[in-house]
Design brief:
By secondary structure, the protein is an alpha+beta fold. It has a single domain, classed as 2-Layer Sandwich (Secreted effector protein pipB2 fold). It is about 35% helix and about 35% strand. The strands form two sheets. The protein has a four-stranded antiparallel beta sheet with strand order 4-5-6-7. It has a three-stranded antiparallel beta sheet with strand order 1-2-3. A hairpin with a 4-residue loop joins strand 5 and strand 6. Helix 1 runs antiparallel to helix 2, helix 1 runs parallel beside helix 3 and helix 2 runs antiparallel to helix 3. The longest helix has 28 residues. The radius of gyration is 15 Å and the shape is globular. It starts with a strand and ends with a helix.
Length: about 160
Amino acid sequence: MKTELIYELHNAGWASLKIHDGHKEFHYAVSYLYDSLCELSVATVNLLKHRESGSVIFMDEPGELKLEIEKLNAGQVRLTGKWYADWASWGMFPKDRFRIDFSFDMGLNDFAADVLLHLESIYITDGVDGYLEKWCEHEFPLKNYLRLKKLLNEHTNTR
């Protein structure tokens, strides 16, 4: 079974994140309180632009997942999910008190393609205005979506 990351937008400030490592699926609720989709798109763009690592916060109410992404050799990335019982990113919980939910490797291009697929799906289905209406606090990361689309195309064509 394929390793994949799935991000789905729902109504009234909620989304879901599913991560499948080929054997087990991990599910997380994602709150509008944090601009996770934008941060995910920025981290992905930066990885394609030769940054070595990145991280993304996916807030729940309460709790949060910190997705750490580390570049490995041979076009691979390691995804590690750290779960905090409350909001460590906002200083409401100790940053050293987490559990590791998952850690696995996947291709950088596959990871970037998954992120782009979900950005594109949201853009086509909801548009910029529909996204803001559903997500309440944050605008659709249009500039990052377009950058990612261009970079992924360049990255896959040069390999």
